Amino acid sequence: MTIDRHLPLIRTFLLTEAAAFAMAAFLHAGLPIEGYEYSEAILFESVMGGILFLGYLFAHINPSRTRRTGIAVQGIALIGTVIGRFSIIAGAGPRTILDLVFYRAITAVLVWGLIMAIIGPTFDALSVVRREKKEGGPRDVGL
What we know:
mainly alpha
């Protein structure tokens, strides 16, 4: 049962990242604050948020594939975000301070979520082995 602890964490990352992209798309649509409108960014951020949200839904429908889904959709979103950052650097995207901060923050969150999806189960398995050694249970015989 302890091995499945990482599944809610991966789902939380997916939902949080999808919500962040949705908020950025709303901002670029000028909904809460005017002055940040940028139509190409709305499309890009909506697609990235949609991919992450579909991954979140799929992780709930098929929990046995949560880890793979998290790795796949966060990897796609990370690649898209890096492309978006390069477009900002090249001058093709919005260059406001808010956009620059958002892309740095979402890149960090995507990397963190991707790392948790990749190595999260490994940490859970190691914690079980350490707990068994402390309790005097079966010991890991190593190679």
